[in-house]
Amino acid sequence: MAKETTFETVHQNVAGIDIGAEQIFVSPDGKEVVSFETFTSSYYACAVYLKERGVKKVAMEATGVYWIALYFLLEELGILVCLVNPKETKQVKGRKTDVRDCQWIQKLFSAGILRHSFIPQGKFMELRHLVRERLDIISMGSTYVNKMQKCLELMNIKLPEVLSQIHGTSGINMIKAILSGNRDSNYLLSLCDERIQKYKGEKVLKALEGRYNDTYLFMLEQNMQLWDIHQNQIKKIDGEISRLLDELSVDKEEVVTGKAKAVRHHAPKIPGLHATMARLYGVDLTSIPGINDYTALRLIGETGVDMSRFPTVKSFVNWLTLSPKSHRSGKMKKNVRGMPCNVAGQIFKQCAQSLLNSKNNAIGSFMRKLRGRKDSGIAIKAGARKLAIAYYNTLTKGTAYVEEGTKRYEDQLQRREMALLKKMAKKYNMQLSENQIAA
């Protein structure tokens, strides 16, 4: 008979739950296991069972979306829930069953080993799902953009090669005119933006000299209609997001803000978004390089506005999985590949990537210098870490970020290098002349 694994008990009266699509398995003591179906009435029966056993806290894995309904039901009934990353409860291969999983989760939780995942509460959770749904619809809509490009190429209409994006205002105007039966190249060009007419007019006229085909035009029309449907859905989601933001910011004080940054792609059509985000955060986050109002909207559902659960900025960066990982054993120390970033960490990496070629801020200069020694991936992750630190400090201190600028960063770097140079000269009994220092 296998020896039972035991741990020191840190948390009393706790249970472990393993969640599936059809059943959940509950262990109140690490030994006994009871199963329930996943219907709402069964969830209530599970809560009654836990209260009868004196359970005050439960731990369960974040399995797909199955955990959400049970999580909030138990929270409403006064049972605290610890949601954990499944990687932290992974068992040895060949020993995994639903019954053993819930027992193992209970033992780890009672020993104080498991860490709580951040779960937005109330309207913030709804906001997170809406923003993620918006991104999914944008991604699905891009499929039809690619198909429209294919249809144009089949007719040798070279608009994708001339325009930066065919789903911009100019491209869509021309495609709709073509579908309505218009073939006059000069008229189609007149539907474009003035800058396109001025700088790309001749190329657009050449691009429109295609071989029109009824079948390919039919396919183009079908994909245009589907793309329009997705755009209308995005507008509806923007309206729902606007309603939630109004509810969340109703009692918030006004915050003095600067000019809103432009959002280049897929900007939300939400009136007063800049002022609303500043009220929710209590500070203007767009003072941080690379962060605009759309970025702040995406982050608020992922991180919330309360940083008190992160005692230090290092714990926040570690939660984002932006900290460099290392492996130490005896005298050996080496860097190792870390876990992929969570959604919030990915957002910071996207912001950092947009700054990689920026010549007007210190973080961009830092990344370019690091890219020369390492590679772009490492530089972007390091830049994302700096943005996350600025984000944490802005929220915890309540003061807007102050951009030092590339010049100040380079001066600071030069002073550091000069100090190192003087230290090396002193080490080898050498002296730097005034001309060398000035140079």
TrEMBL record:
The Transposase IS110-like N-terminal domain, residue ranges: 15-155
Name this polypeptide is given: IS110 family transposase
Top-rank lineage group of the source organism: Bacteria
Residue ranges of domain Transposase IS116/IS110/IS902 C-terminal in the record: 285-341
Record-level GO BP terms: DNA transposition
Annotated GO MF terms: DNA binding; transposase activity
Signal peptide: none
